[in-house]
Amino acid sequence: MVHPDQVKAAIAQALPDACVEVEDLTGGGDHLQVKVVSAAFAGLSRIKQHQLVYGALRSELASEAIHALALQTEIPA
Amino acid sequence: MDSSLKQRLDQLVGSSPIFVFMKGSKLMPQCGFSNNVVQILNAMAVPFETFDVLSDMEIRQGIKEYSDWPTIPQVYVNGEFIGGSDILIEMYNSGELKEKLEIALAS
Q1: Superfamily assignment of B3-106 in CATH?
Q2: Which domain holds residue A21?
Q3: Is the pTM of the predicted complex or chain greater than 0.90?
């Protein structure tokens, strides 16, 4: 399990301008819903956008510290 | 990646116009995200094949590397990785998925 703040920190490191919202869906810290808004997504396909975020959380996902991650990415309006 | 594993994955991905790597089976998905994908494809009444990654650790790890995507499910249309559960839901809601699948199944 991970603390939502760790997730925010990891994403902020990869995408410094990102606005990140993390919701812990079960209270167990391993089923998370994450919304990331960043200008870095401009011009990228959704797959590439998600890959940027997954890349930031690579170790947490590989170790299954995060078991489930529902991800939503957006470009700032 | 080991070339025989890559070959197995190529074969699976190419075995059906719409192919899904998931946890569990169409009738008994073992994870909510895999279930989302099955429900969407069922709702669209399109033919698709699935592979249960829980039955094969080599495929389970290999597919993540294959697509550079760390999570299951993974949906492939005509051999192209189009996304996991979140992206499929977005594409379904926007109508983009219907269009993509119609084109894929017509070709």
Answers
A1: Glutaredoxin (3.40.30.10)
A2: 4-74
A3: no
